[in-house]
């Protein structure tokens, strides 16, 4: 049934009005907002992504001096993104990649166009090669409401504590919520961190709406897969980001499970050919294979989908990651922190009784989903499992320091305890023979 013409034009006016009210003066704004960085995978580069409410040119001006003119210029493109909500709000997402950056050097930049510029931000170009010691902040499940870890992450970032961020799925709660206004609010909230550090992501279940379209549109990850899966090298590590969600939202394409699995296998093969240069293989995916939380999530099931695959046998990831000697698996989804003993198929494979994480004979799993969101924390099952080493039901996030090709330092920061380190462990593996755990 069609509404009467009068109603229709009223509705249209309302719609136009609500679409238009973005800037503080009520006019659609050409000023950049939601500025964030990501590493596109080629050494010496960095991508700047931002949003405007009208189409404008996409330019980044940058330089080495903290004040004064910014002598360098890079141009990019924008794409309109229409949210799937009833208002069909339209954002213009701009992307500009800076190239030939000097490794380890700090740059100042602003983005926008003659119609409006962002404020100035600073970032340090990633160093090249394997022989340096990257520091990462790692967490998942950070919402626009109750983002507990964010103030400390901002301070850490200002102090130059990290080289990059890994956000292991579940953003904003949700990016699409309230006609994607919650997504806008979230992207503004993380700007003080994400405009200064490459903010590397993988999708979680909260990004599912409209086929992950807000996630795909708002982030700019390496590769040609809209950020659903990709890999990149950082210092002594090869980092693989993938979507656990392909196993759960099959209506978006069952073939994605197979496509991703095949990509993972070929990427792991390549990573192993290059293992002497980049010894660590680290994965990040949202839903864990194992967890000891008191809920009914996939990871609490003995044959979790992520671990064993569809119908308990198709495209399970535990065998694949074990076969290719993955060192460290980063997960989130459970709103807590849990570190497992080195594990394969429910068996604990500690290096030794005294030093369980020195020469472990199975991958190490870290579940870090307690950065803070409106759903608050997830309780643990009363009795810990024999494969669970440490459990922390407190807000916080993980610091990961890759010292070199043999030593990784992992610390869990508690926001409930004002930044106290509540878990601290070194993972040590020999330089050679990394592929085989046997
Ligand atoms: Fe989740």
Task: Describe the protein.
The chain is an alpha+beta fold and 438 residues long. It folds into 2 domains: 33-124, Purple acid phosphatase-like, N-terminal (Immunoglobulin-like); 130-428, 4-Layer Sandwich (Purple Acid Phosphatase, chain A, domain 2), CATH 3.60.21. It is 19% helix and 30% strand. It has 8 helices and 28 strands. It has helices at residues 5-20, 150-158, 177-189, 191-194, 209-218, 255-273, 305-308, 317-323, and strands spanning 33-38, 46-52, 59-63, 72-75, 77-82, 90-98, 106-113, 116-117, 121-124, 135-139, 142-143, 164-167, 171-172, 199-201, 230-234, 237-241, 280-284, 309-310, 314-315, 328-331, 337-340, 343-344, 347-348, 364-368, 388-392, 396-402, 407-414, 420-428. The strands form 7 sheets. It has a 7-stranded mixed β-sheet, with helices on one face. Strands 14-12-10-26-27-28 form a 6-stranded mixed β-sheet, with no helix packed on it. Strands 3, 4, 7, 8 and 9 form a 5-stranded antiparallel β-sheet that branches. The protein is globular. The N and C termini lie far apart (67 Å). Mean pLDDT is 94; it is low at 1-24. It binds fe (ii) ion. The site of fe (ii) ion has 6 residues, from loops.
Short description:
With 438 residues, the chain is α+β, with helices and mostly antiparallel strands.
Descriptors for this entry?
438 residues, alpha+beta, Purple Acid Phosphatase, chain A, domain 2, six-stranded mixed beta sheet, 28 strands, disordered N terminus, binds fe (ii) ion, hydrolase
